[in-house]
Amino acid sequence: MDGNKRNPARRHPYRGKKAFGTNATPRQNVASSAQSPGIPRVATPPLTAPVPVDTPRFADLAKGNLLHPELVKTITEDLKFDHMMPVQAATLHDLLANRIDCLAQAKTGTGKTIAFLLPAIQTMINKRRSAGSGVSLLVISPTRELALQIAKEAKSLLQRFPQYKVGVAIGGTNKNTEEKVILGGCDILIATPGRYKFISTIPEGEAQTHDRVPQHLITVPTFSDVTAGLVGSIKSEVKIEGAKNGILVATDVVARGMDFPGVTNVFQVGIPSDKESYIHRLGRTGRAGAEGRGTFIVAKCEEFFPRHILKEITFETTEADLSAKTEVVQITEKMDNQSRTYQAWLGYYKGHMKPMGFDSEELVNQANMYARGGLGSPDTPTINKTTVGKMGLKGTKGLNVVADPPRVSKGGRRGGGGGGGEGRSLGSGGQGSLSNQSSRGRGGAGRGGGRGGGGAGRGGAQREAQW
């Protein structure tokens, strides 16, 4: 069959199949012959667009072993496919060669089913799991009709692989029959949401933490007041006594996969990336029915987040205690990582300019005020030319741009440091010291700061937590 001249083209899986009865049309016989016990009949709509002639050919997938030779024969010889439909041409190669995730949208009848079934079946074959050993591919369909159609096309693609079985689980059918099909050896299962049972893996007492844990919202005038507001809140909350009580300062790393029992309060400083991150952070307190609370500290220009993003959460507004501001500035003035903190601030809030109503110049202006008022920096911290370019702030007024440091030669030092360090600021390495100014493992501006504890290099600011 010349697939290039057919206009409009017929539905892929059943074009070109021979009829088995003398008085039946090819399409009618295919519809009946492609069925198998356990999968009800379903009409397959025709393609709504002609098959193009300027897209890659299915036979090209045999190059580089992207697709199993028998699958290629099924496509080209049994189903008589030649050129790919646009959605197939746009996705198949990347799905097969690069194994990427893909979200595709196309009109009905343009070949989407083949576009996701072929890579999925190829992956199943690559895994070399024995047939009938369990479900290898699960397809979720929004409707019964589409589920049956997908199952029918899957069987057509697997006609040269009879060892693999296709099953369906949809509403309005006998559950016992479907269960027998699955338990009898189902490799590909196509189902509708109505056949799924929701299984919660969240331990009892942890669900909906944000609905039952008291949450306080503290708004400070500027970013320079955030740290002082945090200190004031902590002073009113706890009194540190030896090792029985303590404060953990950390990034989001503690919100996922780490458990600290007995956390009484989670202080969130600054806006998180999204609502889910806020809830994950809050979930460290009040666990398993225990008492706890949350405190969210934001600058005035960050109020959009609790007001709009977290509009379903009820906050108790708490007045900010900024009495510690002078003390905070006295401490930050002595810190020697002001430049990196300044750069980190710019990099993070660059992604939140629009909801805060900032343009690039206002972002830099806010960063400079934070550097002077919050970090105690007498001058605007320097920032490398390359870093400015990567941030998309090239040419923005107010930045103190300096030339990039010379690259260290291959035989020179690359931020020495101890071998067992954790990539903390300013090259602390060696034995895992938490000090910001450890003399052991201190290196130059190399690139080894992330792992072996070198200098203030590319990974030097990756400290995630300190007690």
Write a brief caption for the model.
This protein is an alpha/beta fold and 467 residues long. The protein folds into 4 domains: 46-128, Rossmann fold (3-Layer(aba) Sandwich), CATH 3.40.50.300; 129-200, Rossmann fold (3-Layer(aba) Sandwich); 209-325, Rossmann fold (3-Layer(aba) Sandwich); 335-402, no CATH class. The protein has 15 helices and 11 strands.
What brief labels describe this structure?
single chain, 467 residues, Rossmann fold, three-stranded parallel sheet, 15 helices, 11 strands, RNA helicase activity, ATP-dependent RNA helicase
Structural notes for this entry:
With about 475 residues, the chain is an alpha/beta fold. The chain has four domains: about 45-130, Rossmann fold (3-Layer(aba) Sandwich); about 130-200, Rossmann fold, CATH 3.40.50.300; about 210-325, Rossmann fold (3-Layer(aba) Sandwich), CATH 3.40.50.300; about 335-400, no CATH class. It has 15 helices and eleven strands. The chain has a four-stranded parallel sheet with strand order 6-7-4-8, with helices on both faces. The protein has a three-stranded parallel sheet with strand order 1-3-2, with helices on both faces. A two-stranded antiparallel ribbon has the order 5-11. Strand 9 (about 380-385), helix 15 and strand 10 (about 400) form a beta-alpha-beta unit. Helix 12 packs antiparallel against helix 14 (about 360-375). It is elongated and about 80 Å long. The chain starts with about 25 loop residues before the first helix and ends with a strand. Keywords: ATP-binding, Helicase, Hydrolase, Nucleotide-binding, Nucleus, RNA-binding. Belongs to the DEAD box helicase family.
